[in-house]
Amino acid sequence: MSNVKEILGNYSKDITKTIEEELAVITPNNLAEASVYLTRAGGKMLRPALTLITADAVGGARESALKSAAAIELIHTFSLIHDDIMDQDDMRRGMPSVHKVWGDDVAILSGDTLFSKAFEIIIGNEGTTSDQNNKSLATVADACVKICEGQALDMGFEERFDVNEEEYMEMIFKKTGALIAAATKVGAIMGGASEEVINAMYEYGRLIGLAFQIQDDYLDLASDEETLGKPIGSDIGKGKMTVIAINGLASDDNGRLLEILKDNENSDEDIAEAIDILTNCGAIEYARNLALESVNQAKEVLEILDDSSSKQLLVDIADFVLERSA
């Protein structure tokens, strides 16, 4: 797993450089600083790295996908800035969130700027055909719509405790998986892959995107506070419907789990009790197995590719999604 982190870090250098070059023209200074702030704060840069690795894996040139990869990261950052405003989250990547530093108005503008720059970058991509650029543009636009739909679905789940697994899987695909799927699809497009391979790489991204979010649900209950960077069981404290909560409620015979999820003032003891309930009924293990199933399916999809170091890296990244601890 440490090897994957190191490799992602190596890819992030070129991506960060490209983003900074593209954002250097923004004025005034406060908007420019707010726009580049989260990029400098670090992060895995998993999505843009997947774009570059996929381009390699389908037999294309990494350089041809670099600007599209940067655009993918700008869309991801835009979504984080707006999420933090809507959720009023004060911290992001261990630093004060953009709206806490510059205020809501500038934060909204910085998100909108990143969103717009992402499309500008793809349109102006050189070294690829107009058809490739147009297909990439359409892919990213579709992902943006899905992200908004996913966020709206997630908001609609608040105060709802009858959410079923099918609804939840649709929400996490749109909110989390769609951009990861777009990242791998764009990499395949820019790498000059056939339509069959392009579709397969979208499916690979979709599957690891689902696994990524389910693993987050799992870590919220199975990790520790120091590693996770936030209190264990915070999803329970917020009454959030996850695949674990949905599965647990299905066997909540005495209604105690539902009672805890509905309570906005749970104690640490209440949350610990809920975790015990979810552990004993097998809901936590169920989520872990669901994520594992998605990862295994994603690796099967990769069989369409010729063997290469880039293909193996895509396999390793699928495993990394489950092996990460935060």
Please write out the topology.
Elements: H1 2-23, H2 29-40, H3 46-57, H4 66-87, E1 91-92, E2 95-96, H5 98-123, H6 130-156, H7 165-190, H8 195-222, H9 225-228, H10 234-237, H11 243-249, H12 256-262, H13 268-280, H14 283-301, H15 309-323
Antiparallel strand pairs: 1-2
Helix pairs in contact: 1-2, 1-3, 1-4, 2-5, 3-4, 3-7, 3-15, 4-5, 4-6, 4-7, 6-7, 7-8, 8-14, 11-14, 12-13, 14-15
Mean pLDDT: 93
Note poorly predicted spans.
Answer: none
Strand neighbour order, sheet with most strands: 1-2
Oligomeric state: single chain
In brief:
By secondary structure, the chain is mostly helical. Helix content is 75%, strand content 1%.
Would you mind describing this structure in some detail?
The protein has 15 helices and two strands. It has helices spanning 2-23, 29-40, 46-57, 66-87, 98-123, 130-156, 165-190, 195-222, 225-228, 234-237, 243-249, 256-262, 268-280, 283-301, 309-323, and strands spanning 91-92, 95-96. A two-stranded antiparallel ribbon has the order 1-2.
